[in-house]
Amino acid sequence: MRRSGPFLVLTALLLSAVAAWTASAGAPPPPAGAEQVVLLHGLGRTRSAMWFLERSLEQAGYRVHNIGYASMDDDLDTIVADVARQLKQRGVARGPTVHFVAHSMGGIVARAYLADRANRPLPNLGRVVLMATPNGGSPIIDRMRSAGFSVVPIGPTGRALGSGADDVPALLPDPYYEVGIIAGTNDALVPPDRARLARGETDYVEIDTGHAWIRYSADAAKQVVRFLRDARFER
User: Per the domain annotation, does 164 fall within a domain?
Assistant: First the structure.
């Protein structure tokens, strides 16, 4: 039976992901005093969506905290409080340097968490990487509104990710920390221009991939590690 081009591409991507999982599953435990990384997934996902980045960062020697939250149910304040509770339970603020790496809406959650006065100052805060995060708002949310789809089953936080002046991305303060932005060149949900920050970027890079697959990109994972170590991406 003849297979279509998209089927072959999807199969190759899945096989690549399985191979990467197999190669990294035996990652040694992080050394004593290893720096920490908090991972935050995007809208409609769970912590399992970040497995490739989790394994890649563990292979690089980091202690990883892969955090889940109710992205489709809770408003942003509730999500931030839940994330804060989980990080407190894990003693993240009392450990070595802690970085944040987030995908899509998870980047908005990370920015909101770090802007919340209840969580500042985080004495051991390191660097932050935002992957395909709608820092300028998502055009998909804007189109939904213009089409009259005011009630969409993506939760209160998802519905607030447009580009309006009253939407969450526009209300978040500029970062006071080093932040790297990774965008996907083929991302229709968060195009590169919407992933960028108006002010406060430390560095920016584009990866030839789409919105969901950027989580499984070996190139993106490599750039994440490079920024966490050097505060700049590889050129």
Answer: yes
CB 134 within 8 Å of CB 195: yes
Per-residue pLDDT of the chain (235 residues; tens, 9 = 90+): 444 455 444 544 554 455 445 444 556 788 778 999 999 999 999 999 999 999 999 999 999 999 999 999 999 999 999 999 999 999 999 999 999 999 999 999 999 999 998 877 789 999 999 999 999 999 999 888 777 666 567 889 998 999 999 999 999 999 999 999 999 999 999 999 999 999 999 999 999 999 999 999 999 999 999 999 999 999 8
- d(CA 235, CA 231) in angstroms, rounded, equals 13
| 3-class state of residue 100 by DSSP | strand
Q: Report if residue 74 sits inside a domain.
A: yes
Rounded CA separation 40/26 (Å) = 23
The residues, ordered by sequence, that sit 6+ positions from 16 with a Cβ below 8 Å of its Cβ are: 216
Give the CATH number, domain containing residue 88: 3.40.50.1820
Tokens of 210: 């789409």
Buried b vs exposed e over 176-202: b needs ≥16 C-beta within 10 Å?
eebbbbbbbeebebbbbebbebeeebb
C-alpha 233/C-alpha 223 separation (Å) is 6
CA 51, distance to chain mean position in Å, is 12
Print the domain residue range for 66: 33-230
Expressed in angstroms, the distance from the first to the final Cα of the chain is 42
DSSP 135-166: TT--HHHHHHHHTT----TTHHHHHT-SSSTT
